[in-house]
Write a structure and sequence with these properties.
The protein is an alpha+beta fold. The protein is 19% helix and 33% strand. It folds into 4 domains: 1-58, no CATH class; 87-207, no CATH class; 222-281, no CATH class; 289-327. The protein starts with 5 loop residues before the first strand and ends in a 13-residue tail after the last strand.
């Protein structure tokens, strides 16, 4: 025995929760599949449901499949008639080009979703009507452009055949497991974010826009860049594009050259090797404290037998590390 939460009322599918006492007294309810007469059970110790007045053998699969189809169709038809949207939430690849002109870098923001009102294009529909050798459960179509079609497939036990999926036709498959899944169709909103909804043969769009404008922290593309200063020093800062760009803008008078694509030319696994190689290829000398004429090698005794060597700058009169030389204006070979 299956519990029916849906029946037909005045030619349309109705959920038991929408039935009033008045409707029960005056109206007539029918099995969505077999058309057999039913009555609405509204009060009592059991959950509200429709039950048959005559024996009926509708299987659960058929009931779910047929009801989902009718509810989808009815919801879509109502949206068209009342000028209401029926949204499809789809995924696209977002790229931010806000700082592209200045830096040649775009922020790759990955997959995002947006909504599209299907009724704006698909103003007509067909139920189980053959089309190019297929028989989709429902086909949404455009009267202006009859080649624009979306197959809607309701999957209860069987998933859409691979032939249909490979046909090239846009197809939305909605898996229906229970009455709640059917009720959700009434929201006029189907989404790729729902586990039971799959889109096939929709080309994933790439959208380029100044997306990062709406982010408080600005452009989030993480990069390593090369900055060469007019005084001969250089550095390889690694940070968010927004911060790098703002630092460069502030210091632009001191800067000779910036390479935002520096990492593209890196070939070694080791960062240090890559930097050395990069500098060599660009005819720049490597600045390291150990190569500087002001450096002294300190040997510090730690423990009985062990020593630690460190670099001491005789000019700055402090301990230094190799990296310090990159931006040190006193570096001399
Ligand atoms: Zn950005």
């Amino acid at each position: 025995m299956i519990t029916h939460s849906w029946a037909r009322y005045k030619g349309k599918p109705i959920h038991i929760d929408e039935v009033t006492l008045e409707m029960r007294e005056e109206g007539e309810f029918f099995n969505v599949v077999s058309g057999k007469k039913m009555t609405a059970y509204l009060e009592g110790k059991f959950q509200r449901h429709f039950h048959h007045l005559v024996p009926d053998k509708t299987s659960k699969e058929t009931y779910l499949h047929e009801t989902a189809k009718q509810v989808f169709l009815d919801s879509y038809e109502q949206a068209l008639q009342n000028d209401k949207p029926f949204q499809l939430e789809y995924a696209y690849d977002a790229t931010c080009n806000r700082l592209f002109k200045e830096t040649g870098v775009k922020c790759k923001l990955g997959s995002r979703t947006d909504k599209f009102d299907l009724t704006r294009v698909y103003d007509t529909f067909f139920l189980e009507k053959g089309y190019e050798g297929f028989q989709p459960d429902i086909r949404l179509s455009s009267t202006k452009n009859p080649l624009e079609n979306i197959f809607i497939e309701i999957a209860v036990t069987h998933e859409s055949s691979s032939k249909k999926l490979k046909s090239g036709h846009k197809l939305i498959e909605i898996k229906i497991r229970n009455d709640e899944d059917i009720k959700a169709l009434r929201k006029n909103h189907i989404s790729v974010l729902n586990a039971n909804t799959s889109l096939y043969n929709f080309r994933k769009k790439g959208i380029e826009s100044e997306f990062c404008l709406s982010s408080e922290k600005g452009c989030r593309e993480f990069r390593k860049v090369f900055i060469q200063y007019k005084n001969g020093t250089y550095e390889f800062p690694q940070y968010y594009l927004e911060n790098i760009w703002s630092d460069i803008s502030i210091n632009h008078e001191r800067i000779k050259n910036v390479d935002y694509q520096v990492e593209k030319t890196f070939v070694y696994l080791n960062d240090k090797e890559n930097k050395e190689d990069y500098l060599k290829r660009n005819g720049l000398e490597i600045r390291e404290c150990k190569l500087c004429k002001y450096v002294a090698h300190n040997r510090e005794k730690i423990g009985k037998k062990n020593f630690r060597t460190s670099l001491f700058c005789k000019f700055l009169k402090e301990n230094v590390t190799d990296e310090k030389a990159e931006l040190c204006e006193y570096f001399r070979k």
